[in-house]
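Workshop exercise sheet. Pairs work together: one partner reads the sequence aloud, the other fills in the structure field after running the prediction. Swap roles for the next sheet.
Pair: D.N. / O.F.
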Amino acid sequence: MKNKILHLLILITTSVSAQLTLKGKVVDEFDNPLPFVNVVLQKTTHGTVTDDDGKFYLKTKKYRGILEISFVGFETQTVRVSEKTKYLNIVLKEESNQLEEVVVVTKPKKRLKKEENPAYKILKELWKRKRKLGLNLVDHYEYKKHTAIEIGLNNLDTVFLKSVFKKSYNKDIKQVKYDSDGINYYIPIYLQEKITKVYGDTKNDRIREDIKAEKEEGLGAQGFVFDRMSNTFQNVDIFRNNIRLLQKSFVSPLSSNGFATYDYVLYDSIVKNDQKLYNIYFFPRRNGDLAFQGNVWIADKNYSVRRIKMAVHKSINLNFVRGLSFDKEFEVKNDSIYLPTKNTYDGDFTLVDKNETNKGLTIKKTVTFNDYILDKPKPDDFYLKSLEKIRPDQFKRDETFWEKSGKIVDEDTYSLISSVKKKKKIKTITGFINTVANGYLNTGGNIQIGPLWTLFANNQVEGFRTKIGFRTFKTKDDRFRVGGHIAYGFKDKKFKYGLETRYLLSYQPRIAVGVAYQNDIEQLGSNLLNTTQLLGNTFGTTALFNRGDNFFLSKVRKIATNFDYQVKLNLHVGFNLSHSRIRSASEADFSMSYIDQNGTLQSQITDVASDIYVSYTPGRFVYGLGVERRFGRNIFPTFVLNYRKGYKGPFNGTHSYDKIQFKYNHPILLGELGLLDATFEGGKTFGAVPIGLLNPIPANQSLSLVKNTFTLLNYYDFVTDTYAATHLEHHFNGFIFNRIPLLKKLKLRSLVTFRAAYGSISDENKALSRSNINYNTPNDLYYEYGVGIENIGYGNLRFLRIDAIWRSNYTPPAGALVSPTPKFAIRIGIKPGL
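Structure field:
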């Protein structure tokens, strides 16, 4: 009896609660909202029509049925719905004349030769014209660009939302939007808008872009990581053969060599505004290739692109990435000029894997283009100038300005962000994201602790070493910043420390100054060139696991100052002054002794020196306007030239010398072949100096890979006063493994490396040395080569890399303090995503 009553109660409760509450939006194939569309539940009298934004809301006591969506001029669509249906995105197709060749839009099982593919004729015409169409057809142009970047938490359930809003849940849930699946929820946490005016001079290949207004809201202002994430989507130029994305080269679906990477299917055509548009779908030929999947609409007369929708194929593994999609729209003028009108980029990021049920992070970027003015030139010198942002609040405008400029983000979104940014749980999540990205932990005040990955280390002099760093941090745009660290060695039982202050003297021109004091141990044999870094930070004292013994550390007591002047964005000149006392950190095991000019044996070097440097990094993304800036992970070349002068006499300097050094790094994208990362460096020291002021070829005795070092050398194996070195790494990005049937499922990627060094040392420098290091130089060319596998991991976490490395024949000189280095080694590297 009790069971029957229970069943009856359940039935009654179900009947009472069984009802449909449907929300959704109706758009056309170009994502334009359709107002006044009929939305009716078949075989009932329940229905509604869409509003001006194409949105509808329908509530009925029915708990399932078939929803009919109809509109004059469009094909009627039906959708089966139930009480589980939360949100509907409906796309209506126009009634149109179809081409005779209509193909089901799936990846073809049998591949046609490109000459036999109906899409080839259309794409061939596009390739002929793609360099001649667009704004390049006019000598001068200008337009307004409105950009909105939104970052939020996705795939959220009601349990999570209740833990965020707590008592205000019933009120705040009304503001929260559904996620793209229409089932779970999405909360924005950061929003940035920018309006710019763009001026172009195609005759002289000049572009000027002036910021007119900016605003932001949310938790992104607390760190650099959201700036970096916001710039994940730079301009994706579909008309280039290769598209740069997340430090990788993707083959464009409109590439003239696209048939080597894609399968194309001509689906249909429609007539819109008296113009025929061909709809071509594209699919990667091989899963795992760096390519996209989507479709493109191409106009028939001038073969210009009207719209393209594409997404990174799900078979491609990118660290932390669950999905990336792009939607670009164009309009055509005078049958020859196509103009961009709207770009929409959407990224979905998760920590562990691509499981659709996991919570993640969404990045949405929307760019609109309007107010075009063509062939109205400005004076020639106008295009050479630019209106740069130099202060954080420089382009802040009132709400009246934004209302007149047109909105692409509604006020409800701003209101919600303003509310959720105060919630403790949201602050905790964004704080965790910032900590993972930069290694610093917020303390609740204006002090951050970190970086956390240098917390523990080990070497033969200090034994187990612990180091705690800190920095002041109010916002990313702080003009004044103090940072430092304190370290302790459990073997030598000594404290070490460093303190540095930096201040931005001027926004325009950008001038920064700094001063630092250090009393710590450094591995001077692990790097060659250091310019703006005042505090020593060589990896030789931060590694926890090492091979062999390492007593070759130096105790450095230094005071240094820096003056840095930005000539223009990414071009800096600077001046350093330093006073350093250098001696061995373990004199019983590692001697740095030398004979001074009086014939006296000395164990300490007093280095009084100045540096003048030039640093040029064209194309580098720079974030922040304060004294400390952060840089994007985009691909750009780097050139550094440094002249160092050592002074004998003033402030007890022990040596007079001159040293000139340079370093040039250039990552080169080679299309589907991958990326070549090439570094070249060299230098020469003029004058007689002891080992602490010479140039050891950078060695690496840790068990991990370190950029621009030699894995199979010991510290001070090679000591030079004249050197040249090159480091070459080629990352195939799946070009090889994706073509091997049994390996492509593992999503691994291959790479090859080659490193070489050549150098010499003068008899004069050999003569004054009394170090127990036997000077040896790579005058027969020392080199290392290797092969590696990267993209190792699980799910979305694939940041591990393993290299097998060999070296050329090399025998340490007689009497060397350490055993010969191995001829072969396996090393592990870590390369995070974004």
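Discussion prompt: Confidence is low (pLDDT under 50) at residues 1-18, 97-104. What would you look at next?
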